[in-house]
Amino acid sequence: MHDSGDSRPGVLEVGKLNVWLGKTQVLNNITGLVVPKNSVFSIMGPSGSGKTTLVKTFNRIIELNKEAKVEGKITLNGEDIFSMDPVALRRKVGMVFQQPNPFPHMSIYDNIAYALRANGIVKDKSRLKDEVRSALEMAQLWDDVKYKLNSPARKLSGGQQQRLVIARALALRPEVLLMDEPTSMIDVVSAAKIEQLIVELSKDITIILVSHSPQQTMRISNYVAFLYDGKLIEWGPTEKVFKSPSHRLTEMYVIGKI
Amino acid sequence: MRVREVLALTLTLAATVFMFAPFFWILGTIIYKGVSVLAKAGFSFLVDIPPLPGFNSLGGIANVLEGSLLIVGMAIAIAAPTSLLSAIYITLYEDSPIARLGRTLLDLMVEFPTIVVGISVFLVFGLTLGLGLNALVASIALALIMIPYTTIQAIEAMRVPKSMIYEGAVALGLRESHIAKILLIEGRRGVITGVLIGMAKIFGETAPLLFTTTTSFNIFANSPLSPVSAVPVLIYVYAFSPYTNWQQVAWGASLILSLVVLSIYLSARLSLGKGDRYA
Predict the structure, then answer these.
(1) Residue A54 contacts by C-beta under 8 Å, 6 or more apart in sequence?
(2) Is residue B176 within 8 angstroms of chain A, CB to CB?
(3) Cα–Cα–Cα angle for B77, B148, B233, rounded to 5 degrees
(4) Taking burial as the number of CB atoms within 10 A of a residue's CB, which of A64, A67, A248, B56 is the most buried?
(5) Which member of A61, A105, A119 has the closest CB to residue B167?
């Protein structure tokens, strides 16, 4: 394993993390993983290696699964996430899922405004409008939807829905944004836009990206962790992991042999 | 093989037509018998009171219609919020023992004989609590019958949206009360349909009203605690009477009742059909 070799401070740190789903151990002693601030940190690995479980542990969404059992330590800016209120944690650590999941019958505007209002973040109406616009601009969706903010979200294309969901998460100004294969269910053009967006967003927030595609990982991430069979095989700067992996399994994955 | 296919198709089609036939036969009879009564009585059928013994006029069903509207309205006022709140609980906490028990009991309540509901409500509210026969007691009986229909429909309406948006909503740091509101917004058409289906169900209910309403058909209820009667009870009593004009009133009332129930069902279908379904 490598450390980042970079001056960026760590946002999330993982130590001795074990996760079980029922009787199956899905993550096995993940330790020494440090996610540097304002970076795109990819988690790659074959299917069933535990990538999604790992990111779902970062915002404790994993706990929605009644069979999940988590042991170990994860800190967000030094604070143990397991001693935080999960609701407060999720406002700091946002998440975008593989399948775009806007609230389909709500308007585009309300999809973003709802959480801001409900969480008591913005109460003033004109400020709310500004926040919605700002979130849509950040997600590069404003130009597409500025004349149809009252249309239901279900009327957007798959790619636009995914950007709306990103905007919805960004509106809460998270410190970390978890993205679980956000481009796997949308068309190539939309995927390219989202990749570009991820790189832009990482100037201000930390992105943790689950990806099935080594090519995508190489294109957009600053750091990469490789998981295999629930174990952290190695992690480090993307270039280093891809060009001179320190483990045979990583090398095989990178060249597409596993 | 071809003959077998034709035979199978013929049999299934015949069974389907056979299934529809009684409905159209009943509807046809009610329309045939009822329309002539309504044509003879005219608009006064809706604003006059039923004929008393010894009178040959047709009169109308104004007070029983008012009674039905009152008790159904009150039953909805009791059942709709109760159903909605329990549907939200059962949807959000579906794995909890109370939610699982609730879901099982709802299925049981749907199958429960409504006459037993009527006699139980009469015993508890009418006799033990001394409320007697009045609109409130009748509406409690109807509410108990409506609740499982409305709740089950509301649960179904929110179940699919929940599976699609729940994780996303939790990931936004939303609390359960806010997620419940989203589920209501997303499943609102199904929830409305549930209320309409429950309403249609209780509008035509007769058995529980036999214990909780009066058979004096010449009184108007002027408060929730007034004695009240209802259209199905009038049909039941008048259809068995020896007076021809009473029997005619029963046919006219049957047509009105059928039209009301069918209209509510149609609205429910339209309400559900209009909404965009979840994939």
Answers:
(1) A17, A19, A27, A30, A43, A227
(2) no
(3) 65
(4) A64
(5) A61
Q: Do A61 and B174 touch (CB under 8 A)?
A: no
Q: When comparing pLDDT for B232 and B1, which is higher?
A: B232
Task: Work out the burial of residue A180: count CB atoms within 10 Å of its CB; fewer than 13 is exposed, 13-18 middle, 19 or more buried.
Answer: buried
User: Touching check for B170 and chain A: CB below 8 Å?
Assistant: yes
Query: Which chain A residue has the Cα nearest residue B180?
Result: A118
By Cβ distance, the residue of A95, A103, A106 closest to B171 is A95
Nearest to B121 by CA among B106, B138, B102: B138
Check: CB of residue B134 under 8 Å from CB of residue B226. Answer: yes
Q: How would DSSP label each residue in B145-205?
A: HHHHHHHHHHHHHHHHHHHHHHHHHHHTT--HHHHHHHHHHHTHHHHHHHHHHHHHHHHT-
pLDDT 10s digits, B102-158: 999 999 999 999 999 999 999 999 999 999 899 999 999 999 999 999 999 999 999
Residues counted in chain A: 258
| Cα–Cα dist B218/B63, whole Å | 7
- When pLDDT is cut at 50, 70 and 90, the band that residue B1 belongs to is low
Residue B96 near chain A (CB below 8 Å): no
- Nearest-angstrom CA–CA distance, A10 and A36: 4
Please measure the distance between the N-terminal and C-terminal CA atoms of chain A and give it in whole angstroms.
20
pTM: 0.83
Q: Mind listing the pLDDT tens digit for each residue in B170-223? A: 999 999 999 999 999 989 888 999 999 999 999 999 999 999 998 888 888 889
Find the CB nearest A97 among B167, B182, B188: B167
Which residue of chain B is at minimal alpha-carbon distance from A170? B172
Phi, psi of A172 (to 5 degrees): -85, 5
Please give, rounded to a whole number of angstroms, the shortest distance from the CA of B148 to a CA of chain A. Answer: 26
- Identify the pLDDT of residue A3: 44
Tell me the count of A-B CB pairs closer than 8 A: 70
| Chain B residues within 8 A of A97 when measuring between CB atoms | 167-168, 171
- CA B249 to chain CA mean position, Å: 22
Residue A248: which residues within 8 A CB-CB, separation 6 or more? none
